[in-house]
């Protein structure tokens, strides 16, 4: 059994102050969903937190600014969804 990179992302809890490749993946995913407004720098700062909260509100998740299992699952689902025109 092979686990994709996208599946393993659901294991990392991210919040304001988090840094690194998982934050870069998060920022790229949010930009994929909302457009390229979020700076991709690997730092979970105020702008990333605000965008996470927007995402959580838009998709009826708990709005806490923390990227846990449920938020990751929805992010990955949307990122992997086929694009339709």
The number of distinct β-strands equals 0
**Which segments are poorly predicted (pLDDT under 50) over 5 or more consecutive residues?**
none
Shape designation = globular
Alpha plus pi helix count: 4
Radius of gyration: 12 Å
In short:
The protein has helices at residues 5-8, 21-34, 46-58, 69-80.
Question: Topology of this protein?
Answer:
Layout: H1 5-8, H2 21-34, H3 46-58, H4 69-80
Helix pairs in contact: 2-4
Written account of the structure:
- By secondary structure, the protein is mainly alpha-helical.
- It has 4 helices and no strands.
- The protein has helices spanning about 5-10, 20-35, 45-60, 70-80.
- The longest helix is centred in the first third of the chain and has 14 residues, at about 20-35.
- It starts with a helix and ends in a 5-residue tail after the last helix.
